[in-house]
Specification:
It contains 13 helices and 13 strands. With 347 residues, it is α/β, with parallel strands linked by helices. The chain folds into 2 domains: 97 residues, Aspartate Aminotransferase, domain 1; 237 residues, Aspartate Aminotransferase, domain 2, CATH 3.40.640.10. Helix 1 packs across helix 10 and helix 2 crosses helix 10. The model has no long low-confidence stretch (mean pLDDT 96).
């Protein structure tokens, strides 16, 4: 389907526009003057909402991007001699352009996971060299929810990881760029698989679920924020007109708009996956638990499809591609994609 002359594709939920209700809230916040740098009624209200969702002791700070949320959040609890353990598919490793190493100075230690999820066995491969000055000191384990492969950690899986890393003196960070999609899939409140499951620091994303910009860094345990306001300022993420990030979260949480948007994108992914499974030439490689579909398709077919509906290659060695649905994907988009795919496969 075309919107303003541009066909919606399946490349990324980042490519979607802004939900009208969030745009409406931005327009409302644009009226008149208010204090800057977060000393405004919109930020006060948004911070209160995060306390309602995650607990009264939650300390939340807004930033512009997901990379900033991840890197600055980790920088609050790490030193340059520390290391962060993550899946090899994690954004920290694949999509932050070395930002953790540059801005924190610490190493990112990765492990391969076929479904993008960590577990104790994978984590323990890096838990050695403690108190040995020749070895970087593991300090944080980072999980992504939902993962970069579209899979979702259950609360018990997160609790198992949290208990293990805490017993080793480490902390648990969650990259929640698509946390809303995970919550909808499990039909659980955010607390159930974050603070109630042992997560210490959370990057809470909104941009992939209907917002224009802005992410939240949530310190879920008392005392972790420390001097973070200075870290955020030095990290160039203190917004002078912070009300325009905050106002979006007010609309995001109102009447469970986040759930409506994520629920729709998840549902569109399942519909698309159901259609793809009808073709013998294709193979879906991951469980459909959020709004991402990973599918092996013939390379030449994929190249021809990409001229009409752009999507990204994932593992070119096996001709695997990623298809993402968004809050504004509709069944007409899917029908058009499947119709063209059927034609290409027959040609």
């Amino acid at each position: 389907m075309k919107t303003n002359g541009t066909k919606r594709g399946f490349a990324s939920d980042n490519n979607a526009g802004v939900h009208p209700e969030i745009f409406k809230e931005l327009l409302s916040a644009n009226e008149g003057h208010t204090l800057g740098y977060g000393s405004d009624i919109y930020t006060e209200r948004a911070l209160e909402l995060f306390k309602m969702y995650f607990g009264r002791e939650t300390e939340t700070f807004f930033a512009f991007t997901g990379t900033a949320a991840n890197v600055l959040g980790l920088s609050a609890v790490t030193q340059s001699w520390n290391s962060v353990i993550a899946a090899s598919t994690a954004h920290l490793e694949q999509d932050e352009c070395g930002a953790p190493e540059k801005f924190i100075g610490c190493k990112v230690l990765t492990v391969d996971s076929p479904d993008g999820k960590l577990n104790i066995k994978l984590i323990e491969t890096h838990l050695h060299g403690f108190d040995f000055e020749h070895h970087s000191q593991p300090k944080v384990v980072s999980v992504t929810q939902s993962t970069e492969l579209g899979t979702v950690y259950t609360p018990s899986e997160i609790r198992e990881i949290a208990d293990y890393v805490h017993s080793k003196g480490l902390m648990l960070h969650m990259d929640g760029a698509r946390i809303s999609n995970a919550a909808v899939f499990m039909d659980l409140p955010f607390k159930a698989f974050t603070i109630d499951s042992g997560v210490d620091i959370l990057s809470f994303g909104g941009t992939k679920n209907g917002m224009m910009f802005g992410e939240a860094i949530c310190f879920l345990r008392p005392g972790l924020a420390g001097d973070f306001k200075y870290i955020r300022k030095q990290g160039m993420q203190l917004a002078s007109k912070m009300r325009f990030i905050s106002a979006q979260y007010i609309a995001f949480f109102r009447n469970d708009l986040w759930k409506t948007c994520a629920g729709h994108s998840n549902r569109m992914a399942r519909i698309l996956a159901d259609h793809l499974q009808q073709f013998d030439e294709l193979k879906i490689t991951q469980k459909i638990q959020s709004n991402g579909i990973f599918v092996i398709m013939p390379e030449q077919i994929a190249k021809r499809m990409q001229k009409h509906y752009f999507f990204y290659p994932w593992n070119e060695n096996i001709s695997e591609y990623r298809l993402m649905t968004s809050w504004d994907t509709d069944e007409e988009d899917i029908e058009g994609f499947i119709k063209l795919l059927r034609q290409e496969l027959k040609s």
